[in-house]
Amino acid sequence: MSxxxxxxxQYMGSLRQIIAQGRKRLGLLVGAGAAASINAPGSSxxxxxxxxxxxxxxxxxxxxxxGTTLDAxxxxxxxxxxxxxxxxxxxxxxxxxxxxxxxxxxxxHKELSEAICAxxxxxxxxxxxxxxxxxxxxxxxxxxxxRDYPFEIFTTNYDLLFxxxxxxxxxxxxxxxxxxxxxxxxxxxxxxxxLPSRWTRIWKLHGSLGWSTNxxxxxxxxxxxxxxxxxxPEHLKYExxxxxxxxxxxxxxxxxxxxxxxxLIATGFSFADFHVSARIDECLTAxxxxxxxxxxxxxxxxxxxxxxxxxxxxxxxxxxxxxxxINGVAAPWLPGDPPTRDWGPIRAGYWGADSTxxxxxxxxxxxxxxxxxxxxxxxxxxxxxxxxxxxx
Length: 392
What we know:
Elements: H1 8-21, E1 25-30, H2 32-36, H3 51-76, H4 82-95, H5 106-124, H6 134-143, E2 152-155, H7 161-168, E3 173-174, E4 177-178, E5 184-185, H8 187-192, E6 200-204, E7 208-209, E8 211-213, E9 219-221, E10 228-229, H9 238-243, H10 245-257, E11 262-267, H11 274-286, E12 291-295, H12 304-310, E13 316-319, E14 323-326, E15 329-332, H13 344-347, E16 351-354, E17 357-362, H14 367-375
Parallel strand pairs: 1-2, 1-11, 2-6, 3-6, 11-12, 12-13
Antiparallel strand pairs: 4-5, 7-10, 8-9, 13-14, 14-15, 16-17
């Protein structure tokens, strides 16, 4: 019985051609692993930590005042991260009144919720470092191609790194807010998506630094990053959800994946976020012409959430350093003969030893390499015509 393998040259040659042309409807799904892939200036620490490390930092900062409550909540939610604890705290603040749960009444849980958001804001409020970065390279690629459709960025991150990269490049973008004094969220514009295609869309699925509320309880975008209005839609009353951005932004993700001939690229995203993953799974099922390419940082066996979906959905391809799941088939990578004589520099962008050396592996699960791969797609090097089976 023959053993299946996947040839990275075949699939990356096809992807490189797609992203260089500007004719396909493309989007990017960005998780916490993206910002964690670059270091803070002068440090070996990530610019912004992943959720697990963020959880440790926030809970350590709050241990003095709220340690007993946080320990009790985490004891009832196995492996709870800061977002899950924040969700539980907000739910309790909405229903318990003067009754104390985990040592706090509703007012206490509301104050704890605000304290958690404030600590998250301190950690993720980081400026994009000067000079080249994966964010500037992605923005350069976005602006360097004439597009039939706008490029859309969906992110669960609270940081403003993409916004800063767009502004440094003087590249226009739309994030759902409009206005000058108190920019307000306009769900009708998000739904219609009728701005010019050269305007990149940036959709903050979990909220963002710089969001706040005004005296009318409307969510607005303020001028600086100090506001930390981090709210998740499932913890708001129905009428609040319809007013807030979150429902419209999740609907925008669904509409994007429900459009024919669409490709969503995922990077730094573990698929552990049930609400995002469920919407993606639903749309991939309903729209077989949509495709999702998930570039994962860890070996395939350590990516259970992404693997679970890719094993069931032929239109989701999962690329890990050691293996891939393509058309539902999990198999190791095995490069073949170079498609052309000058393919070596192109292959080096997605295949080789990582920073620790050792066995060559697939590199694009690292956001740094993925951004460089996209940016280099404008290269004039010869791109062979991909086989029909490789075109999504």
